[in-house]
Amino acid sequence: MRLFIRVMKALSDPNRVRIIKMLGTKELCVCELRQLIGLAQSTVSKHLKILEEVGLVTYRKEGAWIIYRLTQGEESEYARVMLKNLKGWLTDDPLLQEMLARSSWIDRERTCAA
């Protein structure tokens, strides 16, 4: 039950759900997520750490950047099921729609250099 509660707590924050939805479209670095969500870089990093600890996101290094992506839920059945369901949920949320539209033109080179 402990892992179930941890996954649910991780998804209880609207900004972490937004991060999951953004990463459901493509891999993003912290700078890109910061620009899309409008939070401080340190806050985005804290949210990503929580999501990583419960097996919802993972990362890889690419030069100076750390690039985040969704996992396949390998570590947890709860994470796998929630990621699968979140793909179809909240598609009519206006804020998420606007963020998803902006994510298509975000440029890592320009965003992270600022």
Instruction: Say how many strands there are.
Output: 3
Estimate percent helicity: 55-70%
According to CATH, the fold-level topology is Arc Repressor Mutant, subunit A
- Low-confidence region ranges: none
Q: For the largest beta sheet, what order do the strands appear in spatially?
A: 1-3-2
Give the name of the CATH architecture.
Orthogonal Bundle
Number of contiguous helices: 7
What's the helix-strand series?
A: HHEHHEEHHH
Q: Going by CATH, what is the homologous superfamily?
A: Winged helix-like DNA-binding domain superfamily/Winged helix DNA-binding domain
Determine the strand fraction and express it as a percent band. Answer: 5-15%
The rounded Rg comes to 14 Å
Give the overall pLDDT as a whole number. Answer: 92
So what's the CATH class?
A: Mainly Alpha
Shape: globular
Amino-to-carboxy terminus distance: 43 Å
Largest sheet: 3 strands, antiparallel
Oligomer description: single chain
Task: Please describe the structure with a list of short key phrases separated by commas or semicolons.
globular, 60% helix, 114 residues, 3-stranded antiparallel beta sheet, alpha+beta, Arc Repressor Mutant, subunit A
